Structures
1.
Amino acid sequence: MVSRVEHPAAGYRKIFETVEELNEPIPAETKGVIPSWLSGSLLRMGPGLFEVGDEPFHHLFDGQALMHKFDLKGDQVTYFRKFIKTDAYVRAMTENRVVITEFGTVAYPDPCKNVFSRFFTYFRGIEVTDNCLVNVYPIGEDFYAVTETNYITKVDPDSLETLKKVDLCKYLSINGVTAHPHTEADGTVYNIGNCFGKNMSLAYNVIKIPPAQKDKSDPIEKSQVVVQLPSSERLKPSYIHSFGITENYFVFVEQPVKINLLKFLSAWSVRGATYMDCFESNESMGTWFHLATKEPAGYMKSHKYRTSAFNLFHHINAYEDQGFIVVDLCTWKGHDFVYNYLYLANLREEWEEVKKAAMRAPQPEVRRYVLPLDIHREEQGRNLVSLSYTTATAVLHSDGTVWLEPEVLFSGPRQAFEFPQINYSKCCGRKYSFAYGLGLNHFIPDRIVKLNVQTKETWLWQEEDCYPSEPLFVPTPGATEEDDGVLLSIVVKPGAERPGFLLVLDAMKLTELARAEVNTVIPVTLHGMYKAPPSP
Ligand SMILES: CCCCCCCCCCCCCCCC(=O)OC/C=C(C)/C=C/C=C(C)/C=C/C1=C(C)CCCC1(C)C
Ligand SMILES: [Fe+2]
């Protein structure tokens, strides 16, 4: 699936430009045939406002949260979008400047305020952003737009109105949680986040939020920390973007991209730096895998799995098989932080410059790691993995650590398989065959890919000057085959008469079933969900 496509016209710049929200849903023009069973809403989050007044946001993860919705009802499709009225957005609009520091953009003090009030603004310390541009997911019967801090924002998935800001710190001992929770069939939500405890004791806390409550109370009020995993380094927790879950275990990968807490708590609050300034790489630790049991919940501290350094943002899937845990990941080789390459100035460069910058960045690879559960002292020095279908290895060393080597499932130079999706309801935590992803060509999203993780066969959807987003899998009702369903992706085709469209692909063959076009560009979206219509 290595893409030979070039982008000399740099049309991808359009997906990093500010747009206006809509007052009401607009009709889309449908070409092709949308399956009649596919009715519901595609909800997605991303940045939509890339500057305030004359102050630009600098990083891909700074733009203000814009929520998008494609509603499907038969072949009638509409598109709607609204900015989430977060504190970051409302205050920026009111003051016409960046008021809350974002991931890679500092909010400078109000120049109209005198030197004393400016000093006290700094002295009060940091105001953590609630800019929920990363994802949207349900908790109980409610929907929340999220970033990775302690603030999540309740939204109305129909009107896209902002309902309320929730501070998870009120309920849980965490400083932030990922934007990639796992949700079980009954609605139980698991997530993981950093916890900077008392006396700076550091941990990664796995949290559990129960499903919708019979008494209609808010399940968040009943959320709890179920497992605590220790940090490998004092004062420097690793950055976590997602985690894995199997029937009986949580899988946490501790990567060498670290948050320097001293920088976070001092430089950041006093001198005015960004979140990006608080990251650093640990050049010697490599990457550590940790396991915890689900029931009873507990950290498996005797299992010390190690491998070479990589950045990790997205787990694809994990499952148990014959005494092993199989973990499939979208990795980026080395400890240099991939987010360093995602400044908007770089992504908006001419194509030749974009390619040059990507040459210096960590290289992507889809990898399978296999973790043996039964480890015996006498088995030192030999490969413990006996699964017939993988070349991944695990070797016990004399210090008790198990060194892992992966099987490469997909690798193409500067061609990433990222933003992975699976048939989640059928396959999460189970042995599976298919992963779907967004193909990044030197970081530019220009194709949709299907990967058979067992045979390594790939399928591709690609069209000239088209920039798709993460493909979400929606199963055909009553399907028995894993890949019987459709993929939904928002695509931008800058020069076209109707430059934004919802693409509907047949997930088996990766062929186009339909597209629903709208007369507006749709800026880049990161993650989202498909919301089925309420059952009659
Ligand atoms: C869709 C195509 C995009 C085009 C380019 C993409 C290239 C992607 C290459 C790699 C994949 C990366 C995936 C990342 C996806 C994503 O959605 O990331 C967004 C992450 C954000 C906005 C993270 C925000 C985190 C914050 C604000 C964390 C804050 C904290 C600290 C840093 C330390 C202290 C705790 C706290 C406050 C939580
Ligand atoms: Fe993500």
2.
Amino acid sequence: MKQYLDLCQRIINDGEWVNNERTGKRCLTVINADLTYDVSKGEFPLVTTRKSYWKSAIAEILGYLRGYDNAADFRALGTKTWDANANQNDVWLNNPYRKGEDDMGLCYGAIGRAFPKPDGGHIDLLQQIIDDLSRGVDNRGEILTFYHPGAFHMACLRPCMYSHHFSLLGDTLYLNSTQRSCDVPLGLNFNMVQVYVLLALVAQITGHKAGQAFHKIVNAHIYEDQLELMRDVQLKREPYPLPTLKINPEIKSLKDIETWVTLDDFTVEGYQCHEPIAYPFSV
Ligand SMILES: Nc1nc(=O)c2c([nH]1)NC[C@@H]1CN(c3ccc(C(=O)N[C@@H](CCC(=O)O)C(=O)O)cc3)CN21
Ligand SMILES: O=c1ccn([C@H]2C[C@H](O)[C@@H](COP(=O)(O)O)O2)c(=O)[nH]1
């Protein structure tokens, strides 16, 4: 929690104003932040200085792991977070590749579960990683990437947290996740939860202990219409102790994640938080 609040404060103290063409808004911006979550110690990084919708965050990462490319599928899992990007952005609405209502196009899991090969066909990057890790192999390139510049024109948004690199040391699994662009008041709330859950889940289904997750953020920003709420409300609050996350131990394979896992398989214990803050969202 401290590392999150420190980053927010750093943006306010040292950030520079940058015009963003896509959203038409200015963002107070810093470059480079490194956050660490110790999954082995159960340090679940849930923001306590406002109500944080952790179920929505877990639904997003489950949808990515399932290879979803449609906001309706994300809603069925329990999150509306893709509705706006799929259905309210004029550039995407006028894109000839958009397949209709709720389509997100070729991004996130739609790439990671079926990465197009230059010589034809696809690779299921996640399945390959799970297979390797399950037999104790780390080939030093266990990288789940959602980043495919050749598909950007066929997607509603480029992936923000675009790479997840798993490593095995003995029987402990580590994760390095990289994010190119980060909406600190809204997105990062979710992204911290997602990095933690990704390591915990993959460790569980591949039969390893979870170690640390390292989260690298390149462009960390606060939109101009979010600044006052962050500076004058959220940062004035004292954080509470971190809660803990429990994952159903019956989740044992990628197939389980793809077929029957729901948000009921995740519980958060001891979550004490301040009042919600409704930050404006930029489409
Ligand atoms: N500008 C922007 N920021 C983001 O964080 C973001 C995008 N766009 N587009 C793609 C995804 C969608 N994500 C989202 C979208 C909406 C919320 C949001 O509205 N959160 C509210 C309510 C959450 C709820 O009720 O489930 C929040 O208070 O956290 C958060 C993350 C993260 N990403
Ligand atoms: O997981 C996510 C997804 C998106 N974001 C934020 C970061 C930016 O504010 C926007 C994306 O805009 P770009 O113009 O494509 O950078 O969404 C996030 O923080 N976390």
